[in-house]
Specification:
This protein has 18 helices and no strands. By secondary structure, the protein is mainly α. Helix 6 crosses helix 8. It is globular, with a radius of gyration of 20 Å.
């Protein structure tokens, strides 16, 4: 049983504020991270040993250790990716992935996402498998799935738009948000999509149906997409926001238009 004070905690604002008891639970995979500070503090190698024991593959640890230690500048983010990709190279066993993708630890689910992203050459198949990660309850997994899939989608941009457009009708706000966030022209910590910077109209099949979305999580993503485009196509941004506000007089659309033009209005 996990104590209530651990389950009900707020994420620490700095590494020095972290409770050692919390770090212990995180590194044993017994709880999810609350924020970036907890994710940075988790001992992923300790967690890996525990997970390998759970799937009865303790003998794999040395191979993971080599992959981790060959990095020039290891970080928590790169360790997550390296561990995940090593799993992807080691196995496609569905029994193992059932353990990984349903694990209590969000970090383990991130490993699983990176791993499975290696297994599919066909974009339709890849994104179909990635749905589970895009809809994950944890924000960290939802960010990793973007990192794991965006480069592939850039290679087949038109196909990606066609696949993701129906996702904008999903009842799950996380799925709708993924459809937009994964396609952002600039975004954060991800590759830019030069074609959208030059021709933002190409993304309208995804954006149009979300211009008055009831979820703030989705609206923020749409607004950020529009704001990304404003840095290279300001006239397009003004035009699309003006049209949307005429077509939809909701407060939700007004919110997107205001945030979507924030870079322009600061000038």
């Amino acid at each position: 049983m996990i104590p209530q004070h651990i389950l009900n905690r707020k994420g620490a604002r700095s590494l020095r504020d972290l409770n050692p008891e919390v770090i212990g639970y995180l590194s044993r995979g017994l709880i999810e991270t609350k924020n970036l500070m907890e994710w940075l503090a988790t001992d992923q190698q300790q967690l890996l040993k525990i997970v390998l024991k759970e799937i009865q593959k303790e003998n794999w640890f040395s191979m993971f250790e080599v992959a981790i230690n060959t990095q020039k500048k290891p970080t928590a983010n790169s360790n997550t990716k390296i561990i995940g990709e090593t799993f992807g190279q080691m196995t496609r066993n569905p029994v193992i992935y059932k353990v990984l993708k349903t694990h209590t630890s969000d970090i383990v689910r991130c490993w699983s996402c990176w791993a499975e992203s290696l297994h599919y050459d066909d974009l339709d198949e890849l994104l179909n498998v990635m749905k589970e990660y895009a809809a994950d309850k944890h924000f960290g997994v939802r960010e990793i799935v973007i990192l794991a899939t965006k480069p592939r989608m850039i290679e087949e941009l038109e196909r990606a738009i066609k696949i993701l457009t129906p996702w904008t009708s999903s009842e799950d706000e996380n799925m709708r948000r993924y459809a937009v966030e994964s396609m952002r022209p600039v975004g954060v910590w991800v590759k830019k999509i030069a074609k959208f910077q030059e021709q933002p109209d190409l993304a309208l099949p995804i954006l149009e149906s979300l211009k008055s979305d009831p979820s703030k999580y989705v609206r923020d993503s749409v607004a950020n997409w529009i704001n990304d485009a404003s840095k290279s196509q300001p006239d397009w941004t003004v035009s699309i926001c003006s049209r949307w506000e005429k077509e939809s007089t909701t407060k939700e659309t007004a919110y997107i238009a205001k945030r979507g033009t924030r870079t322009i209005t600061k000038k």
